[in-house]
Amino acid sequence: MENKIDIAVKEVDVRNMFLVDIRSEDAFLHGAIPGARQICQDKIEENPEILPREKKIVLYCAKGILSRETAEKLRNQGYDAWSLEGGYGKWLLEHFEQEERYQEIEKSIRKKFHKVLFSRFAKAINEYEMVQEGDKIAVCISGGKDSMLMAKLFQELQRHRKVKFDLVFLVMDPGYNEINRKVIEENARLLNIPVTIFETSIFDAVYEIEKSPCYLCARMRRGYLYSKAKELGCNKIALGHHYDDVIETILMGMLYGGQIQTMMPKLHSTNFDGMELIRPMYLIREEDIKHWRDYNDLHFIQCACRFTDTCTTCQPDGRAVSKRMEIKHLIAGLKEINPFIEGNIFKSVENVNLNTVIAYKQDGVRHHFLENYDKEQENDL
């Protein structure tokens, strides 16, 4: 008879167990079981001695697939190792509260987090002129901490609005599994967000694509969101990108793309006439979003794609190492030397001196400094 290796969520006691999250660091930072330690699967396999032999070890991943494999290997080496049944997804579902507490969550936005969240949200909307009279905005919710908070901030803004605008809280289901779909629905209920959910088959369309499936998936999702928003009478879609996303995008473009560009606070759609994309979280720091999440004991999904369903993104190999996570580490290291590094990166794309730029593109046309080099000398004479 096969020995039982799965442990039920209700049996987990972090006070008497060594709980290990073997998902990627990126996934762990987006949300984890309280008290868990993040140790990647490859580190455990390379050096199992980093785990305590005297304790009961409980491993978990996204759905309990890779954690079971790792637990079996550890058992063969004499460890008291177990795998959390259903992984982080099942733990999430079993820890949703039934009582309504959205009022205290909203109060935290008005009081404790007013300065770092709502004030910066309102500042970005005003500074970049994101919301106008008569707008109907599709607040696009992916299920993560950023988009869920954005929805709450929009609700708060509507209570204090100086202009009249309407909101639709739009959730696209591109092929979520049952657990991820349920987590999104439960969080919407807990936060009192009246979501409109529509379904697509994007995950099926990109699942077999080997080259850049994430890029294609993102483009398709954006297109479907624009299309559905326009169908519902919206003229704008709002995405939950924040300040850290902006500075990471700047560095990623320079270091990996060989170009200087930024994530714009708003954009006109090139494929959907009359539609506009806005990013009202533009000035909000990710650490403040996490603080709000943890303060209110909230738990969100990080990524619900088909690859996560099979736990492939739990694996910290070359495919799963996020370039964005590399940039996060780089910025953190630079910040130790210069505490103003993040602000300086952000400001750099607001202070571009074209007289000191070799070449640049505008509306798809490339311009080079030599075009006007001799003319400028003639004008000086």
What can you tell me about this protein's structure?
- The protein has 16 helices and 13 strands.
- It is of the alpha/beta class and 381 residues long.
- The strands form three sheets. Strands 8-7-6-9-11-10 form a six-stranded mixed beta sheet, sandwiched between helices.
- Helix 4 (87-94) runs parallel beside helix 8.
- The longest helix has 19 residues, at 213-231.
- Mean pLDDT is 89; it is low at 308-321.
Helical segment tally? 16
Strand portion: 5-15%
**Strand segment tally:** 13
Low-confidence stretches: 308-321
Largest sheet: 6 strands, mixed
Strand order of the largest sheet: 8-7-6-9-11-10
State mean pLDDT (0 to 100 scale): 89
Q: Kindly state the percentage of residues in helix.
A: 40-55%
Which structural class is indicated by helix and strand composition? alpha/beta
The global form is globular
N-to-C terminal Cα separation, in Å? 94 Å
Number of domains: 2
